[in-house]
């Protein structure tokens, strides 16, 4: 009984910390009044997953927007040869969503997987639409976050289409240096669109410069 009560208290504390984290993010993107912020807690669901657990799988429809408060995630797809290809990574205190599946309500081509034990908040699409309909502040915030997600995805596409492997490596080193310490060479090479042995040769060549 005592253990159950302790777990409930811990859950409430973690939920409270997660809500404060998302409020801080909102304040940095599009500050809004307390009246609008008070609409948030009632629609949120707090979840925890273990390392290697999946939040979304290929073939499932993305019905939520998520906000990662602790941990680290990867978004990947499986190509025609059965290889896992990393498309993007998500760090703490950021939103993640399969935008196309979410907007069109069609099955996703991607997997979202926890690379560490992770905690996140779930915002259902139905509740988000209600917020947009009742609050201009939330409507504005949703637009800004959508633009942010789009730009992130577009940057990724441009990196793959218009940069050489060396340029991709240097771009990643300047924009997300922490990634090099957080993922294996296998995951890093997949993200950069090269084979692990090619990444090894690239690193050695750059070290000689």
From TrEMBL:
It holds the Pfam family cNMP_binding. SUPFAM superfamilies: cAMP-binding domain-like (SSF51206). InterPro entries: cNMP-bd_dom (IPR000595), cNMP-bd_dom_sf (IPR018490), RmlC-like_jellyroll (IPR014710). Residues 28-131 form the Cyclic nucleotide-binding domain. This is Crp/Fnr family transcriptional regulator.
């Amino acid at each position: 009984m005592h253990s159950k009560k302790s777990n409930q208290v811990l859950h409430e504390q973690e939920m409270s910390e997660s809500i404060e984290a998302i409020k801080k993010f909102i304040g940095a993107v599009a500050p809004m009044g307390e009246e609008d912020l008070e609409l948030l807690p009632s629609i949120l669901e707090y979840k925890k997953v273990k390392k290697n657990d999946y939040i979304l799988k290929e073939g499932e429809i993305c019905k939520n927007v998520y906000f990662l408060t602790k941990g680290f995630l990867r978004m990947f797809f499986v190509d025609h040869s059965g290889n896992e290809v990393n498309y993007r990574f998500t760090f703490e205190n950021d939103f993640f969503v399969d935008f196309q599946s979410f907007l069109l309500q069609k099955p996703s081509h991607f997997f979202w997987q926890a690379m560490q034990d992770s905690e996140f908040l779930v915002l259902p699409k139905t509740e988000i639409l209600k917020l947009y309909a009742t609050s201009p502040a939330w409507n504005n915030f949703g637009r800004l976050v959508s633009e942010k997600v789009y730009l992130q995805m577009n940057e990724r596409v441009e990196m793959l289409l218009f940069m050489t492997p060396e340029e991709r490596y240097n771009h990643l080193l300047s924009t997300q240096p922490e990634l090099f310490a957080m993922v294996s060479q296998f995951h890093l090479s997949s993200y950069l669109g090269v084979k692990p042995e090619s990444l090894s040769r690239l690193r050695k060549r750059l070290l000689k410069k």
